[in-house]
Amino acid sequence: MDDLVTLVLGATGSVGGRVAARLRDLGEPVRAASRHTATRFDWADDTSWEPALGGAGRLFLMAPDGVDVDPAFVRLAADMKVGRVVLLSSRGIEAMRDERLLGAERLVRESGMDWTIVRSDWFDQNFDEGPFRDAVLAGELSVPLVDCRQTFVDLGDVAEVVVRALRDADHTGHTYEVTGPQALSFDEACALIAAATGRPVTFHGSPEHYRRSQTALGRPAEEVDVEIEAFAALRELGDSEPRDTVARLTGRPARTFEQYAAAAAAAGRWR
């Protein structure tokens, strides 16, 4: 434990909430910030930035999907003597040409602060508290990745890696890929959820099915086609390869998707 205050952005979200909770468990002073916390932080309101940063020595940096990390905020953090920043990013962003996250990574590397970048694969919890939950409950999920395998990772493991990077200077200057211990296709992941819940979950991996299902929801075809192109670039990378980052940094094995699915089902997450 030390006396450095850690500012955790997105503290009411699935990742930030877990990071803040883990830091508190370790007795670390935490300033949890979001649009709906006592310490207010809003990317769209730069008057909220300085009060949130005041006195903070470390920063967990993330931005919601579709929101850019503002260069002015990163400069302000450095000017206000934040010493260490850990950025949550994603695997495959070069292939998917994700300029939002690529730009955020550049900002952090050039910030003058000690930095670590955590590139996560797909979260396990996308299936029970994220974008796939409704599809799982409906028994039918569509993602245009065909049978390409992904290394789904538990959010608890991601948060633990983030916390280690925040607390230990040995991780300065590193970009870590954080994955689960095995590569699974979405079809295989759905089968494990079905086994845990006792209810079928059918997976559709074709771009055509994805286009039909998304446009049926009223989304513009042009917007859906942009997503399909990004998924096609991800498919070209082939199957994801598991990394040992969780085990190396935490000293324990990463949680398997089967363990996640069993625990989520037992907790009633898909009722």
Entry keywords:
271 residues, alpha/beta, Rossmann fold, UDP-galactose 4-epimerase, domain 1, 2 domains, seven-stranded parallel beta sheet, 9 strands, NAD(P)-bd_dom_sf, Ergot_Alk_Oxidoreductase
What's the short version?
Helix content is 41%, strand content 16%. The chain is of the alpha/beta class and 271 residues long.
What does this structure look like?
- The strands form two sheets. The protein has a seven-stranded parallel beta sheet with strand order 3-2-1-4-5-6-8, with helices on both faces. Strands 7-9 form a two-stranded parallel sheet.
- Helices cover 41% and strands 16% of the residues.
- The chain is of the alpha/beta class.
- The longest helix is centred in the C-terminal third of the chain and has 16 residues.
- It folds into two domains: 116 residues, Rossmann fold (3-Layer(aba) Sandwich), CATH 3.40.50.720; 110 residues, UDP-galactose 4-epimerase, domain 1.
- Strand 5, helix 4 and strand 6 form a beta-alpha-beta unit.
- InterPro entries: Ergot_Alk_Oxidoreductase (IPR051604), NAD(P)-bd_dom_sf (IPR036291).
Determine the strand fraction and express it as a percent band. Answer: 15-25%
Instruction: Give the strand line-up of the largest sheet.
Output: 3-2-1-4-5-6-8
Structural class: alpha/beta
Unreliably modeled segments: none
**Rounded radius of gyration (Å):** 19 Å
Largest sheet: 7 strands, parallel
CATH superfamily of the largest domain: NAD(P)-binding Rossmann-like Domain
How many domains? The number is 2
Q: Give the terminus-to-terminus CA distance.
A: 39 Å
Q: What's the level 1 CATH class of the largest domain?
A: Alpha Beta
- SSE arrangement, N to C: EHEEHEHEHEHEHEHEHHHH
- The amount of helix comes to 40-55%
Q: Looking at the chains present, what oligomeric state does this protein adopt?
A: single chain
* Alpha plus pi helix count: 11
InterPro entries: Ergot_Alk_Oxidoreductase, NAD(P)-bd_dom_sf
